[in-house]
Design a protein that fits this description.
Beta-Lactamase; five-stranded antiparallel sheet; 27 helices; 42% helix
Length: 756
């Protein structure tokens, strides 16, 4: 060996030893002696296998042959130290020129430590360079020893330009530099801190950086510098400032909002904030509100519903809500109807909802009133339609009664005075009278009955029928009359108004089978536009005739059908179902309206509204009443009558009656034919008797055209309807006879207009 080799051998960091061909150690350096835990003299001369784990030798025997053949070999060995511990080493064996073997042993532990150090450094750089924040390492003088790529991006400087520089002097304003010096001194004393500072980029623009700085220690624990992390928080700062501005703005809006509003905790139900409008509207102070929960402003019966809704909101089923039909309680106990709009949000770290409240108590009342008005309007329209139907039935029935009455008159006139058939004729005449009474009720319901209105004191009419009502009510019902004020006058037919009272009283009596109290009250009431519109009246003063009882009342179904003709809750032989319907027709015919309110078990109140002296007197009409002793033996007449009637039987009977009285009759089946007959026979026609309702051309229009030719022609209108309903042009030369009519009534009407 040369001297140079010996020096290298002795000072090598790796263990080195030389063995002879018998594997005895002939030389070893201190590094190897240290590795196996012995002194160098202890190693020299010893067999190398004495330092190797026996298991290794069994698996991998000494590779002398491989080295002899190939010149070198590498193997892994576990060396045994005196304390029994093992040291793993990588052994590289080379054959020397003198035939001995040189072995170099590298401690695997040292290689792993170096590798770990290198891996650690690589990981640090990987983290530092991929960190989404600026990273700076400085010495005690605050000079940059290392900056990552993100720091270069934030500042606009390259790594070369930043490393070695005092970054405060390069990036901070003069005022910030002074503060940075104070912060450096605190870090050298071991303090950690976080602060915001404005950084100036290379292009002169400014960004706000959040700096987290900590002292950097060496292995001995001494502070050798600083580690700092810089995050650009400019956008966050702007967002926070914008949020603060918006929060201030929203707080102002919350405070000045004219509608009640509050915030509540959805977990505890407690109020967290209320605005002045809520305080003023509900009557609680702010302190009272904040000590309460939202359940405290709800009626007890609504609490379970509120809890269920809040529970659903906790589960996330409703983020934003709008609700109707809620009720709240004020401080004075008043219950109000409200509409609410609410929205979920985070309030100072709590799950909360903001609620905007609109008091809709008045709107609810108006909507209820509107629904009631709509129902009353629909009911009025239905009754109008049924009334028209009833009037049409009465008209057709009157035509039939006219035929029967005329035929019975002819029979009576032809029978001898002592004929036993006169009794049968009398029965026929009475049946006609009963049928006529029924049609009058139908016409009253349909507002088509002939009326004789006059100025009446309503209370006087009530007093006049008091005795009649008392007898009709019997002893079990107490009758009480109440007069609201004097001078309650209306234009109405007295007999019809009395019929209204009797019908209402009888209905009330039947509703009180065990007795009770019936009150009839009169008063003056003013109806505004809304109330009058529901009743199909004009706004103004009305006389109210109120009939109330303490009877069994009506359910909704009965109440909705009470005014329908033939509808009755009584037995088959107890009522016709025309009582209230007749009342309805008379009242409407008199220009008034009627309302009915009832609750099962609490009685019924019927109120009739009649205009104060609002109706005009109806024109007089010829009487259509019958008489049992009527005779066809009238003074012979020579006038020629133009008879216009579309019903064949009525026309035939009327012609026979008129001819028996000596009239000459010209017939026509409708208005058009009647007009042609008048034009053809105008010189001989003395009077026109015509129905009102006819196909092709009606009676009124026909008469109007006739009077263009002969203005003075006398006319007698006959109809199952009334003169009022058909708007007949009655005057001295024009009269009306309702069906069914008697011969006397018809002849008297003809005589009246011809004489005029």
């Amino acid at each position: 060996m040369t001297l140079d080799f010996q020096a290298l051998f002795a000072r090598a960091a790796d263990g080195m030893y030389v063995v002879d061909r018998f594997l005895a150690v002939i030389d070893a350096n201190d590094a190897f002696a240290t590795l196996v835990g012995r002194s160098r003299p202890e190693v020299l001369g010893a067999p190398i296998v004495s330092f190797i784990q026996a298991a290794d030798l069994r698996v991998h025997p000494p590779q002398v042959d491989i080295v002899e053949r190939e010149g070198s070999a590498i193997t892994m060995r576990h060396f045994v130290r005196p304390d029994g511990t093992l040291v793993e080493g990588e052994v590289a064996t080379t054959r020397l020129d003198d035939g001995n073997l040189l072995c170099i042993v590298r401690d695997v532990r040292r290689r792993a430590a170096v590798s770990a150090l290198r891996d650690s450094e690589a990981r640090f750089r990987g983290v530092a360079e991929n960190l989404n924040a600026g990273l700076v390492v400085t010495d005690r003088d605050n000079r940059a020893l290392y900056v990552n790529e993100r720091m270069c991006e934030l500042t606009g400087y390259s790594r070369v330009e930043l490393e070695g520089q005092v970054l405060g002097s390069l990036l901070f304003t003069p005022r910030e530099r002074e503060a940075d010096g104070l912060r450096l001194r605190r870090r050298l004393d071991g303090a950690r801190e976080q602060y915001d500072v404005e950084h100036r980029r290379r292009d002169g623009t400014i960004f706000l950086g959040e700096v987290s700085a900590s002292p950097l220690h060496d292995g001995a624990g001494c502070v050798v510098g600083t580690v700092g992390v810089v995050i650009d928080v400019t956008e966050r700062y702007e967002a926070e400032r914008e949020m603060a501005t918006r929060e201030h703005r929203y707080r102002m809006m919350f405070e000045v909002m004219p509608m009640p509003a509050w915030v509540y905790d959805i977990d505890t139900y407690r109020f967290l904030a209320v605005n002045p409008a809520a305080i003023a509207h509900y009557g609680f102070s702010e302190a009272e509100f904040l000590s309460m929960t939202i359940l405290d402003v709800r009626p007890p019966e609504d609490v379970d519903r509120v809890k269920a809704q809040v529970h659903a909101r906790r589960q996330g089923f409703e983020g934003q809500g709008r609700g109707w039909g809620y009720r709240h309680r004020k401080a004075d106990g008043t219950i109000i109807d409200v509409e609410v709009v609410s929205h979920a949000f985070d309030f100072e770290g709590r799950s909360a909802r903001i609620v905007l409240v609109n008091d809709v108590t008045e709107q609810t009342r108006l909507r209820s009133r509107e629904r009631e008005m709509q129902q009353q309007l629909l009911h009025a329209q239905k009754m109008e339609a049924v009334g028209r139907l009833a009037g049409g039935v009465a008209h057709d029935f009157n035509n039939l009664l006219t035929v029967v009455m005329s035929a019975s008159a002819v029979l009576a006139d032809d029978l001898p005075a002592d004929s036993p058939l006169r009794g049968e004729v009398h029965d026929i005449r009475q049946a006609v009278e009963r049928g006529s009474a029924l049609t009058r009720q139908l016409l009253a319901f349909g507002r088509k009955e002939e009326r004789a209105p006059e100025r009446l004191d309503v209370h006087a009419v009530v007093v006049n029928v008091e005795r009649l009502l008392s007898r009709a009510l019997g002893g079990g019902v107490q009758l009480e009359l109440r007069r609201g004020s004097d001078g309650l006058h209306v234009m109405a037919d007295a007999s019809q108004l009395e019929q209204v009272l009797v019908n209402l009283a009888i209905n009330a009596r039947d509703a009180m089978p065990r007795g009770g109290r019936l009150v009839i009250a009169t008063s003056l009431r003013a109806l505004d536009d809304a109330a009058a519109a529901v009743l199909e009246l004009s706004a103004g003063d009305y006389v109210a005739l109120e009939v109330s009882d303490t009877g069994v009342g009506m359910d909704e179904t009965t109440r909705s059908r009470a005014f329908e003709p033939f509808y009755t809750t009584k037995g088959p032989l107890e009522g016709t179902g025309l009582g209230l319907s007749t009342v309805y027709g008379i009242v409407r015919q008199s220009g008034g309206a009627i309302t009915l309110s009832s609750v099962p078990g609490q009685g019924t109140v019927v109120t009739v509204f009649l205009p104060v002296c609002g109706a005009a007197r109806a024109p007089a009409t010829a009487s259509g009443s019958t008489s049992d002793d009527e005779s066809l033996s009238k003074s012979p007449s020579t006038e020629c009558v133009l008879l216009v009637e579309d019903e064949p039987q009525v026309r035939v009977q009327a012609r026979r009656l008129l001819e028996r009285c000596g009239f000459t009759v010209v017939e026509a089946v409708n208005g058009e034919e009647g007009l042609r007959a008048f034009e053809a026979e105008r010189s001989r026609i003395d009077v026109v008797v015509t129905d009102v309702m006819m196909p092709v051309l009606g009676g009124v229009e026909m008469v109007g055209r006739m009077r263009l030719l002969a203005p003075e022609v006398p006319v007698v209108f006959v109809s199952g309807y009334t003169a009022e309903d058909r708007g007949l042009p009655l005057d001295a030369q024009t009269v009306f006879v309702p069906k069914p009519y008697t011969l006397t009534a018809l002849c008297d009407a003809i005589d009246e207009v011809v004489a005029a």
